[in-house]
Amino acid sequence: MTKIGILQCGDHPEEVAKKHHSHSALFEKMFGGHHLLFQTFRVNYGEFPDEISACDGYIITGSRHGVYEDHDWIAPLEQLVRDCFAASIPVIGICFGHQLMAQALGGKVEKFAAGWSVGKVDYTSRDGKIVSLNAFHQDQVIKAPQDSEAILSSDFCRYAGLSYGKKGMSMQPHPEMDAEFIKDLLDAKGKTLFDEKQLSEAYEGLTDDIDVDLATKMLLSILSPELKLA
């Protein structure tokens, strides 16, 4: 059985956590049924694997923090990404995790001047198909690492998905977050982040008509390539 380490980089607001538990719980639910074994490391509290070989692959979660902020766990997490790539241990990153991987490998991340992206977003894949997923971010990758390839993009977010070959894959949107979760997050944090018009538009755009299955297969192709996915 493939063992996946979930590198949890943040905590949900208390009222959201009561209902949805943790970032790790969302990923365990999303990847459920694929014979994966999970272990969570709360890296934002300094909890890391003793050895990178402790797991067969890793997921770096979202976070309320910015990858450019001065937290003592960010540099070690960047080094873990580089060490995993050197050891051919696959890594995937979502939102903050997407940005952290890019920064660790020579890319650049900023708080985007154009503001936030929230709710369903249509991205264009590298083969020209539309992939719809939920987003909740302002920071984004503005310069991709040299050895990466853009696999998802939009007018708002040029580097919404990056491939590092067999070594890793990352996405700015949140395939693990459904409309109910985004609504609860908006209920908890929306009024502190958005003006009334932005918040109304975010609520109105909520839908579960998104491509979670496709995103799951894309990410599993890196985490556990031996799986035969239809």
Describe the 3D structure:
The protein has helices at 14-20, 23-30, 74-86, 96-104, 179-193, 196-204, 212-223, and strands at residues 2-7, 36-41, 57-60, 91-94, 108-111, 117-125, 130-137, 139-143, 149-153, 161-163, 168-171. The radius of gyration is 16 Å and the shape is globular. It has one domain: Rossmann fold, CATH 3.40.50. Helix 5 runs antiparallel to helix 6 (196-204). The chain is α/β, with parallel strands linked by helices and 230 residues long.
List keywords for this structure.
alpha/beta, 11 strands, two-stranded antiparallel ribbon, 230 residues, Rossmann fold
Number of domains: 1
CATH superfamily, called what? Class I glutamine amidotransferase (GATase) domain
- CATH fold name: Rossmann fold
Number of helices: 7
Shape: globular
What's the Cα radius of gyration? 16 Å
Structural class: alpha/beta
Number of strands: 11
- Rounded to the nearest angstrom, the distance between the terminal CA atoms is 19 Å
Task: Report the top-level CATH class.
Answer: Alpha Beta
SSE series:
EHHEEHEHEEEEEEEHHH
Mean pLDDT: 93
Identify the strand order in the major beta sheet.
2-1-3-4-11-10-9-6-7
Quick recap of the structure?
The protein has one domain (2-138, 147-223): 3-Layer(aba) Sandwich (Rossmann fold). It is built from seven helices and eleven strands.
